[in-house]
UniProtKB/TrEMBL annotation:
This is O-succinylbenzoate--CoA ligase. Residues 398-470 form the AMP-binding enzyme C-terminal domain. Residues 16-335 form the AMP-dependent synthetase/ligase domain. Keywords: Ligase. Pfam families: AMP-binding, AMP-binding_C. GO terms for biological process: fatty acid metabolic process.
Length: 497
């Protein structure tokens, strides 16, 4: 018996169950389940009519909005392999994606189409897709066929294409639904403000699969977000720390008690930011751990456990919670987190070709961690980020945690510059910083061992970030090297060029 995934039938079922109920609301237009079904199948049939089939790469290059959702479903039910392209990608980044995963077609709109000209892919404009009055039920797809490509963040080099087959993509969706803190239903709304091509797409599907509504905004749109938050109809928010920080700044002093859960992850949540989130939403913050190589859920820390962690005495690292069902975790001899699960990727593609995971299935994450006596995973930092200075190994995350949340200062990134005398010299780089931030920073790190103290402090207008909004430590280091010179020796300093 061939293992198949009935993507088309599942979407028809949602249409039959929920029909005219709102599936997607992007703050400007709404899309019902019936319209989602008609538009997605129209796209799928159009792709198949152009010869697209199993294993063919089809890209989606669209901003957040209703079209991004039905295009996602349409490519999926066609049987092609969906290649998510962040709408923030430049032409050069898309050319790199095309080199790794040659796309026969790219779904886009008229506004973005010029960026994609002459890349070797046929463009399908979403404005040209006419909804079908009676969409057919398309054949189920083979579970082992390529199903989805996610690009790594590229923080340590050029992005890799991470490949999931159809079966693992389907199972990941099942797993995410299984660990939801409550079951959404018709009328239940989740607010999504991060790029749909990343975690927002999975969270949206989890809500839609239960008849709920995904409120998909194109970023943290203050007016639209405020309208949702104040409506009292919002059940949940997907808000990584960068989004939480923007919400806290935009709605300082307001409380939104109707929100039952704030889903967060992708990067460490600082005590200061947790306190702000708790003041806004109550003890509703839930932390998860996910990787591009193994999408959520890997671990889960429910709101009550999250509150207990932040109320307890400070501990080494950031608590990420307990393993999700089917996920195995271990710490290797180098202190690195390794994992394996049934819904992890099947391999990655780089300039040298396709690379399958190790035969035993254990993926080395590159993250440093520990597992406590309660079985919870704690994140200590990235192996590639560990600073070696004066014979010591230093985690920049620990220093950043001490510096987080300073008044009159934006985000802070800790990097290291090569030094003949020390091996590496610790530098703290801040954005939007008050002139007196250096003195405040020195007071903040006073409780850390002296060898962990930054030797220099640099203020910049903005810290470089990748398309996912994460600070790129490598790019920050390159920025410092291009604008400053290290004065080496026993008492190092930096000098602006």
């Amino acid at each position: 018996m061939t293992d198949t995934i009935p993507w088309s039938q599942e979407l028809h079922t949602l249409d039959q169950r929920f029909g005219q109920a709102v599936a997607v609301d992007d703050g400007h237009t709404q899309l019902s389940f019936a319209a989602l079904n008609r538009r997605a199948h129209a796209l799928a049939c159009a792709l198949q009519a152009q010869g697209v089939g199993a294993g063919d790469y089809v890209g989606i290059y669209l901003p957040n909005g209703c079209a991004a959702v039905w295009a996602d479903y349409g490519v999926t039910i066609s049987g092609a392999c969906l290649v998510h392209l962040n709408a923030a990608y430049t032409r050069e980044e898309i050319m790199w994606a095309q080199q790794l995963t040659p796309m026969r077609h790219i779904i886009t709109d008229r506004a973005l189409a010029p960026t994609l000209a002459d890349l070797g892919a046929a463009l399908v404009l979403c404005e040209d897709i006419v909804p079908l009055d009676s969409p057919p039920v398309l054949p189920a797809v083979n579970a082992t066929d390529p199903g989805r490509v996610i690009f790594s963040s590229g923080t340590t080099g050029k992005p890799k294409a991470l490949l999931y087959d159809q079966g693992r993509r389907w199972l990941a969706a099942v797993m995410l639904r299984a660990v939801l803190p409550f079951t959404p239903g018709p009328g239940s709304r989740v607010l999504l403000m991060t790029p749909y091509v990343h975690g927002a797409s999975m969270q949206a599907r989890a809500w839609l699969d239960h008849g709920g509504t995904a409120v998909l905004l194109n970023g943290v749109e203050r007016e639209a977000a405020g309208r949702e938050l104040r409506s009292g109809a919002l059940d949940a928010i997907f808000a990584p720390p960068t989004v939480l920080a923007k919400l806290a700044a935009s709605f300082e002093g307001e409380q939104f008690s109707s929100v039952r859960c704030v889903f967060t992850g992708t990067q460490t949540l600082t005590p200061g930011l947790y306190a702000k989130a708790r003041a806004m939403f109550g003890p509703t913050v839930r932390i998860t751990y996910g990787k591009s190589e193994n999408v959520n859920p890997i671990t889960v820390l429910d709101p009550q456990a999250t509150q207990a962690c932040f109320d307890a005495a400070p501990a080494e690292g950031a608590c990420l919670g307990w393993p999700a069902p089917g996920v195995q975790l271990r710490i290797n001899d180098q202190g690195e987190i390794e994992l394996r699960s049934r819904h992890m990727y099947i391999g990655h593609i780089d300039q040298e070709g396709f690379h399958a995971p190790p035969a035993d299935g254990w993926h080395r994450t590159g993250d440093l961690g520990r597992i406590d006596e309660q079985g919870r995973l704690w994140l200590l930092g990235r192996m590639a980020d560990v600073i070696k200075s004066g014979g010591y190994k230093i985690y920049p995350d620990e220093i950043e945690a001490a510096l987080a949340g300073m008044p009159d200062c934006g985000d802070i990134c800790v990097v290291a510059l090569p030094s003949d005398y020390w091996g590496e010299v610790i530098i703290a780089v801040a954005e939007h910083a008050d002139p007196a931030w250096q003195e405040a920073a020195q007071r903040r790190v006073a409780e850390l061992a002296r060898y962990k103290h930054p030797r220099a402090h640099i203020a910049v207008a903005a810290l470089p970030r990748n398309p996912q909004g994460k600070i790129s430590r490598r790019a920050v280091r390159d920025l410092v090297l291009s604008t400053h010179t290290l004065i080496d020796g026993p008492y190092p300093s930096v000098q602006a060029r």
